[in-house]
Amino acid sequence: MKITNSPRPHSQLSGMILQRSGRSTLTLALIATTLASFLFIPGCGEDDATERVITKASAQLSSLTAGSDRTAFTSPQFSREKVFASVISELMPIAGSDSSAKPSQQAVAAIIIAHAQMGLAEIPAVKAVELEHQASKMDSLLAEMLRDWQKLEYSAAATAQYDPSKQLAELDQLAAMRAQEIADTQTRRDELSDQIAKLQAHADQLAEQSRKIRLTGSDIRRQAADAEPAQAAALVQQARVQIRKADALQVQSSKTLAQIATMTPQLSALETEITKLTNQRELIFKGKAEINKKTESVAAQTAAARQQASELADQIHALFSKAQELRNGELDRTTREAIKGGSSPQSTGFQGAARMAGKAVNESRTTGNLAKAQAQQSLGDVLWTSAQGHSQHASILELLAHAQGLDSGDYANAAQESRNAQAQALEAAKSAYNTAQRGYAGAGVRGEAGQRLKAVSDALSAVFESDESDESDETEQPEEQAVPSDETP
């Protein structure tokens, strides 16, 4: 099972958070079903303190997602944190190893705690996506600044060595060639135009002769109509002779016009060629003028480009330092908080949520596996996001490190650190996704909810299969040791 190293758009990363919200709503519905079943188990529906605490905590947690899949992400953050922390604090004594509660009660409490822990972990997970987006914009700006710096360096190097004498000589030669070609083409055009004019005059002459003879034939026919029969026959014969002469002259005229029709496109082509050659010669003159203008200012351009490149190099290093501070500071802390938890005892991250959900698997296979799988999938999303961020950052830093002329002493080391972090996060994400798949498969859910969860698992499998084919085409990279996980799958 492979995971590609290509960066994922941050719109998709944000979409992961909303997908996790949808998974949370579905699983909370199954928790409610489990809780309802628990209340009808003989001896478990008694109105004792443990049952009341579990029921209250479940209602508190369910209220955060009531009515909308996204309610948990649009509610005020402080109220969500307070509810999640309260649920965890109230149920932890019930789910603890030294608890006197019934196994079924411990399982339900563990599942609810796991989802509350996931709720707390979602807060830094969402923030990590936002910080990753900020860091990505910095990387994009670094890449853009690097391209600008390279353009300035190339410009300075080019203008410093610029000698247009050879180009100007070549342009003069081309201009002379175009002038000769224009003159030759104009001569051919004029000759062809004269031929067409003569042929047109000849065709007009033939047509006029044909017209006159045809009129004569028509007059003879009218005479034949009024003549005696003996004379009429002779007149008709004369008319026919005249008509045939007229037809023959008309045919000759038509043939001449047809010949002109074949020559007219040639004349148009010559006119087009003259226009094209004239435009090319004008462009040559324009190019010479631009070269002469550039030559006059080359020294000033070189000095200005080098000054701008120097200033931009300082700006690149300053932005690099800021990006490093964000990634190694707030973004790293926020990501670790989503994975392992924060300073409060209730905040355990997705790893802690997965461990807590695992405690309920023996007693409640379906909801326990579902909760554990959701925590592992959310953990994989956070790690995947982190890996793609490190991949993009490393790619930019590698470009900076290989930019000749740019003071890149810090960039190469930072790029290697980012590559190492990327490899570790990818391995950890793969492990979390694999564990999530096993959890979905082991949940054994049936009906519509089961079909929806099977679709999630199938989609993950399809992603992995696609990643395998994608990575097989990439250059093979040395494997890195994955970061140790706090949970043993």
Structurally, the number of domains stands at: 2
Average predicted local confidence, pLDDT? 80
Main sheet: strands, sense, barrel: none
What general outline do the C-alpha atoms trace?
elongated
Helix content: over 70%
Radius of gyration: 44 Å
Which H/E pattern describes the elements?
HHHHHHHHHHH
Number of helices: 11
Cα-to-Cα separation, first versus last residue: 16 Å
- Number of distinct beta strands: 0
Instruction: Specify the structural class.
Output: mainly alpha
Tell me the strand percentage band.
under 5%
**Unreliable spans:** 1-14, 20-25, 36-43, 67-78, 472-489
Summarize the structure in words:
The N terminus and C terminus are likely disordered. This protein is mainly α and 489 residues long. The longest helix has 112 residues.
Characteristics:
2 domains; disordered C terminus; disordered N terminus; single chain; mainly alpha; elongated; 489 residues
